[in-house]
Amino acid sequence: MTNDALIAALAHLVSEGRNPDTMDIDLLPALEIVQRINQQDQQVPIAVEKVLPEIAQAVEKITEAFKIGGRLIYMGAGTSGRLGVLDASECPPTFGVSDQMVIGLIAGGPEAILKAKEGAEDSLTLGVEDLKAINFSQRDVVVGIAASGRTPYVIGALEYANETGATTVALSCNPDSPIADIAQIAISPVVGPEALTGSTRLKSGTAQKLVLNMLTTASMIRLGKSYQNLMVDVKATNKKLVARAARIVMQATDCDKSLAEQTLQQTKYDVKLAILMILTGMDIEAAHEQLAHQNGFLRKAVQHYKGE
Q: How far is C-alpha 82 from the geometric centre of its chain's CA atoms?
């Protein structure tokens, strides 16, 4: 695309428009600047609320993919790519899953996480190469993330994923974007012009973060990774998480700290097993068998024991 064509394309994007509420932002003292930014940020959850049906549709597809051994692949450039990498990297400690279950790919590779490689986003083939490098298959789900909705790196990847027969999702902050047209599911929270024109790491980035939080959290809940609203598959990999594991067991069972820690030691800090043992009186072997029978759903295991 020529420079003139690119300028023309950007002129039509909501996310690139000038915000009439912040035209004097360069004249304001610090408090008033952050007040203006905060006022703009308040529009983000409202925009996300409008696309909840599409987010739920994507969650169902992601959950189905996980159940057959598929993966969730985030793809983006710049801020969008970094947000995908961030969400993917937080799934293993939070939900006790493999780091290959949710993968974040960013244009320019891992180095682009720390240092901008904005030119990498202009390639239609680079995203395809990145998918091939992780042995992408039709069992996987690709979520292409681009505030503008027109990033070539994401477009190429989504088109390839469609050809492969995989599920494709587009996350953009512009209506009727190119990636929304390509993907099977389009999630487009329109947050309007940024406080600082074109700085889509602001409202657009916040909207993307909220949506990504929902995609993985809701999918993991659907897989049985929670009991009530407790993270019962958390991995106790540091002192804080060891303490959190004990607190979760105490919250779920109303037991004291001593029993929680004692039972966690027996289960090698498997929080689900510890909770089930305390709630039912089962030994570790029986509790493990019951959990396996209920496909890891702790609430179902407890209800089955109680005959509910």
A: 11
Cβ neighbours for 306, distance < 8 A, ≥ 6 positions apart: none
Q: What sign results for the dihedral spanned by CA atoms 183, 207, 100, 271?
A: negative
Q: Which of 121, 159, 194, 261 is catalytic?
A: 121
Residue 121 annotated to the active site: yes
- Nearest one of 174, 209, 236, 201 to 84, comparing CA atoms: 209
pLDDT in tens, 12-37: 678 889 999 999 999 999 999 999 99
Active-site hit among 16, 60, 64, 90 = 90
Quote the distance between the C-alpha of residue 162 and its chain's center: 21
Query: pTM of this prediction?
Result: 0.91
Concatenated DSSP letters of 181-241 = HHSSEEE-----S-SSTT-TTTHHHHHHHHHHHHHHHHHHHHTT--BTTB-TT----SHHH
| Residue 308 among the catalytic residues | no
